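Lines hold sequence, tokenised fold; shown next:
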Amino acid sequence: MKILFTGGGTGGHFYPIIAVAEQLNQIAKENRLVKPEMYFMSTDPYNEGLLYENGIEFVPTSAGKIRLSMSPSNIFLNFLDLFKTGFGVLNALWDLYFIYPDIVFGKGGYTSFPALFAARILRIPVIIHESDSIPGKVTKWAGKFAVKVALSYKEAAKFFPADKVAYTGNPVRKEIEEQLTSGAREILNLDTNIQTILILGGSLGARFINTVIMDALPDIVSKYQIIHQTGKKNFKVIEETSAVVLQKNPNKDRYKPYDYLDVLHMRAAYGAADLIISRAGSTIFEIALAGKPSILVPIPEPTSHDQRSNAYAYARAAAAIVIEEKNLAGHVLFSEINRILGDKALQEKMSQSAINFARKDSAKVIAEEILAIAVSHEK
């Protein structure tokens, strides 16, 4: 059996693919099946180590994106990217013809277009998964010919044929799925008697959130301790800025900045946190699995077409509050932190709502459907 994955070169697309691949390998092992041959087609391998660990072969392709702003430079770039995409489609047709997978699983994004287009031409079954409450262009297009459309948000169902849609939630890697509670504060060198705030901006960080945190830092550490994933590009600046801001502050040791949290430290951070501050990408689903209250600061439109809608969809589940960038300031953030962490009943309500929103079986449900369709295609 051959399975080809495809998706954009971001963690929001890549890590759910890894989660599904983990489940495929697990199902094969538990049922003593032949391990499926798996491929990942994209412009970039994203994380070669995880591909290797899960037995996934990287198949490179080229693709170009369409920029909506019609400035002269963007018009020129769009013209060049049409050739990039055209070459990518030809390349994908060639590769898929020789691999001839039994099924293609697409996560969307412009880099998935060549593989999905080739699968349609070669009549290879396609399953797509949409992580956002408002689907991207490629996912909407692929939904017209896909066998099944898996959704992370129920709100996205209206964009696809009703008979194809399944609400599955968003796949999360097994190693992240379970937070670490026992010994979590010791691993992160935290005080066991002080409430903890975890600030996440993704692997690249969130510069705007980082700036606001620096403004509010003296107030926050007066009452709480902070685990702050700054992003590798921002770490040095934040480290230097926080050292100045907290130079004579008696509570300066309550601030713990990290450029990046590996799996162990991320699990410990989720376990130790009383409140999480984050952007509104796929991290929402990790926060939900951790069952923690959160404050979401979505990337504003038009930079991101999906984070604002994602944030409000999650907030409607009563698991989070949303503060948009235009309204975010140090004193506003500190006030909301105090409101949530000062109200035990509110914390418990938000935690339970997060748990109710989460779906632990997401990757398994998708993997089982992939196998079912792949087996029927083999025949």
In short: The two ends are 11 Å apart (CA to CA). The mean pLDDT is 91. The domain at 176-357 is CATH 3.40.50.2000 (Rossmann fold).
